[in-house]
Design a protein that fits this description.
The protein is mostly helical. Helices cover 51% and strands 5% of the residues. The strands form three sheets. A five-stranded antiparallel sheet has the order 3-4-7-8-9. A two-stranded antiparallel sheet has the order 1-2. The chain is globular, with a radius of gyration of 27 Å. The two termini are 28 Å apart. Bound molecules: manganese (II) ion (MN). The site of manganese (II) ion has 7 residues, from helix 8 and helix 17.
Length: 587
C-alpha cells in the first residue's frame, strides 16, 4: 500500500513547504472565545460557497417580506421593504456575476493549450514531475515503472475492464514456455493455463485506428497484447510478455521482463493503448455518452413527479452540460483529445461511438461483465480491487432501487399499465429516440426484475462506474510517463538493445505533458455531490425514508470495508471510497 493519499506529494521537502503554507492560513487565536482554540481568520476556501449564500439570501428575502407584512409600524415596514428591494437587486447582480463566472469556467474546459512552436523534448524524467507546482505530484510518479504496478493497473487502474482469463495460447500471441519462464522460472505455461492462472490484456479494439499527428510528425498508438500470470507462491498478478501489435512476426517481437529498456518501452506501449481505450471507449463512450439518452428520455417521457423521475434526476445532474462540452471541445477536431491521443480524432470518435453502439444493457449488468471475462470471484484472480469494491455498490444500489420501485409497482399489470414508463422504455431503444441496445422486449418492460435491472445499471453507471474511470485521470494519468496518451516514436521492431534515450524519445513533448496534466487535474479532482446524499426532502413520499436510510447506511458500511481492504492491499485503491463517488456524471 502507498504511504500517501492521492493529493499528497511524495517529496518530503515539497510536502513540508505545502504544509507550512497551509499552517500559515490556519492559525489559532485563543482570545475570541477565551481560552478556546478558534481559527484566527477563516481562509477563503472555507468561506460560504456561492450556492450557500444564494440559498440563505432567498430565505432572508422571504423573511424580510414576511416582517414587512406583519409590521404595523409604517416606518419599520418601509425599512424592511427597502432592505428587501436592496437584497433582491444584489441577488440579481449575483446571478449576472455567476453567468460571467460560468463563461470563464466553460472557456477553461475547452483546454485551449499552449502548443510549442519548436518541439520541447524532456531532458530527463524529472521534467515531467517539475511541472507540478500548486497541485501536488501524484504519488504514482515514485513507482510507476515497476512490474507490480503495471499488473496492478490492469485491476485497479483507470481502465480496469480489459483483463481476461485465457485457457490456451492465442495464435496472434505465440508466447513460448521459455519466454514464460523468464518471469516465472519454476512455473510452466501449460500448467498455469490448465490451472486458470493466465490472463491477457488485448487491445484489438485499436487495431485499425489511424495514427494521429502533431506539428512535428506522426504520433503512435498500437493494438498490443500483454500476458499475465498469477504467481504460484505470492498469488500476485505478474506481467509475463508483451507483443506491441496484433500480428506476430519477426518485426513484431515478444518482449519479456529481461529486455531492459525495451521492456519498459513495451509496457509503455500497452499504457498508451490503455489510455486511448480508457478515454474514448470506457470513459466517454461507456459512461458519458451511454447515459445521455437515458437523461433526455427521462425528461421527455416522465412527468417531474413520476416516481422513477424523482429517483433518477439527481443522478443526471450536470450530465447534459458536461457532455456538450465534451463533444463541442474535447473530441472536436484540434481539441484536447486530438492533440493528446496517439490515434487520430476520427478514430477516437469512432471508438466512442462503437462503445455506445456495442453496449447491450442486459450484458452490462456488472456481475456478468466479470463472468464473461473469466475474472469473477470463482476465478484464480482473488484480488481485483475494482471488481471487489464496485460489486459492493452494485448490490447496495440494486437493493435500494428494488425496494423503492416496489413501493409503486406491485404487479406486472401496474408496470405494463404505466403509460409514461412504457413510453420511456420504448423511446430508449427507438431509432427516433435513444437508440440504445438491449432494452428488454424491444422496449416493453414488464417485470419488476427487468425494471430494477435497468435502473440499477443507470444509477450505478452515473455514479460508481463513472467515478471508477474518471477520477484516476488525476491520480494515475496526469503524470504523463505513467500513461502517456501517445507515443512519439514507433514501437521497436527487433530485440536490439534499447537505451534510456530511446525511452525518453517515445514520451510526449513537454507542451503535451502540460496539457495532459491540466486535463487530468481539472477532470480528475472535481468531486461534486456524493452518492446517496440526496437533497433534503427530495423524496417527499414518507414510505421512501426507511429504504433510503438503509441505502445510505449500506454505502457508509462499504466505505468502512474499502478502508479496511486498503490496509492490506499492495497499493491503496481509494478511487471507490464513498466520498469520491458523485451522484452524477458532472465532470
Ligand atoms: Mn468524466
Amino acid at each position: 500500500m502507498t504511504a500517501f493519499l492521492p493529493n499528497q506529494d511524495p517529496n518530503p521537502a515539497r510536502r513540508n513547504k505545502a504544509l507550512n503554507k497551509s499552517r500559515k492560513s490556519y492559525s489559532f487565536n485563543y482570545n475570541y472565545v477565551s481560552p478556546l482554540a478558534i481559527v484566527d481568520r477563516v481562509p477563503i476556501q472555507d468561506e460560504f460557497s456561492y450556492g450557500w449564500i444564494l440559498k440563505v439570501a432567498e430565505r432572508v428575502a422571504n423573511s424580510l417580506a414576511n416582517k414587512a407584512e406583519i409590521t404595523e409600524d409604517a416606518a419599520h415596514r418601509d425599512l424592511h421593504l427597502s432592505r428587501h428591494r436592496h437584497l433582491s437587486s444584489l441577488m440579481e447582480m449575483g446571478r449576472i456575476c455567476m453567468n460571467d463566472l460560468k463563461a470563464v469556467v466553460t472557456d477553461a474546459i475547452r483546454f485551449e493549450s499552449r502548443v510549442a512552436s519548436e518541439e520541447e523534448r524532456p531532458q530527463s524524467l524529472e521534467d515531467y514531475a517539475d511541472i507540478f507546482h500548486t497541485f501536488g505530484l501524484p504519488p504514482i510518479a515514485g513507482n510507476y515503472e515497476t512490474d507490480s504496478h503495471f499488473a496492478w493497473s490492469r485491476i485497479a487502474g483507470p481502465n480496469p475492464v480489459v483483463l481476461e482469463n485465457v485457457r490456451q495460447i492465442d495464435d496472434r500471441f505465440p508466447v513460448t514456455d521459455a519466454e514464460f519462464q523468464i518471469a516465472c522460472p519454476h512455473d510452466s505455461l501449460e500448467r498455469a493455463l490448465d490451472e486458470g492462472r493466465v490472463f491477457i490484456a488485448d487491445y484489438q479494439l485499436l487495431e485499425n485506428a489511424e495514427l494521429g499527428d502533431y506539428p512535428h510528425g506522426s504520433k503512435y498508438c498500437y493494438a498490443p497484447l500483454a500476458l499475465f500470470v498469477i504467481d504460484e507462491k505470492t498469488s500476485q498478478l505478474l506481467p509475463v510478455a508483451i507483443q506491441c501489435d496484433q500480428t506476430p512476426g519477426s518485426d513484431n517481437p515478444i518482449f519479456t521482463p529481461d529486455d531492459g529498456w525495451n521492456w519498459l518501452i513495451a509496457k509503455t506501449i500497452v499504457e498508451v493503448a490503455d489510455g486511448n481505450m480508457h478515454e474514448a471507449f470506457t470513459h466517454l463512450g461507456r459512461t458519458h455518452f451511454f447515459m445521455e439518452p437515458f437523461v433526455v428520455t427521462t425528461f421527455r417521457q416522465l412527468a417531474q413527479k413520476h416516481p422513477l423521475a424523482i429517483l433518477l434526476t439527481p443522478h443526471f445532474q450536470g450530465t447534459l452540460a458536461i457532455n456538450e462540452a465534451a463533444w463541442k471541445h474535447l473530441i472536436a477536431n484540434k481539441g484536447a483529445v486530438d492533440k493528446l491521443f496517439g490515434c487520430s480524432i476520427t478514430s477516437a470518435r469512432g471508438v466512442a461511438v462503437k462503445a455506445v453502439q456495442s453496449a447491450n444493457i442486459v450484458d452490462l449488468e456488472l456481475p456478468k461483465t466479470f463472468t464473461s471475462r473469466g475474472v469473477d470471484f470463482s476465478s484464480t484472480l482473488k484480488t481485483y480491487p475494482y471488481r471487489d469494491d464496485a460489486l459492493l455498490y452494485w448490490g447496495a444500489i440494486e437493493s435500494w432501487v428494488r425496494s423503492y420501485l416496489q413501493i409503486y409497482y406491485t404487479s406486472e399489470a401496474e408496470i405494463l399499465g404505466d403509460v409514461e414508463l412504457q413510453n420511456w422504455s420504448r423511446e430508449l431503444s427507438a431509432q427516433d429516440g435513444g437508440r440504445l441496445n438491449g432494452i428488454p422486449h424491444g422496449g416493453k418492460i414488464s417485470t419488476l426484475d427487468e425494471l430494477t435491472g435497468i435502473v440499477t445499471l443507470i444509477i450505478y453507471t452515473c455514479s460508481v462506474q463513472h467515478a471508477a474511470v474518471n477520477f484516476p485521470q488525476y491520480d494515475l494519468m496526469s503524470y504523463t510517463p505513467n500513461i502517456p496518451l501517445a507515443a512519439y516514436t514507433p514501437a521497436p521492431t527487433s530485440k536490439r538493445q534499447a537505451t534510456e534515450a530511446d525511452y525518453l524519445n517515445m514520451l510526449p513533448p513537454m507542451d503535451m505533458a502540460e496539457l495532459q496534466m491540466e486535463l487530468g487535474y481539472l477532470l480528475g479532482t472535481t468531486h461534486y455531490t456524493q452518492l446517496g446524499q440526496y437533497e433534503r426532502h427530495h423524496f417527499r413520499d414518507h414510505r421512501v425514508s426507511q429504504h433510503l436510510a438503509e441505502f445510505q447506511h449500506a454505502v457508509s458500511a462499504i466505505g468502512g470495508k474499502i478502508h479496511n481492504r486498503n490496509e492490506t492491499r499492495l497499493e491503496s485503491y481509494e478511487t471507490l471510497a464513498p466520498s469520491g463517488i458523485p451522484q452524477s456524471i458532472n465532470i
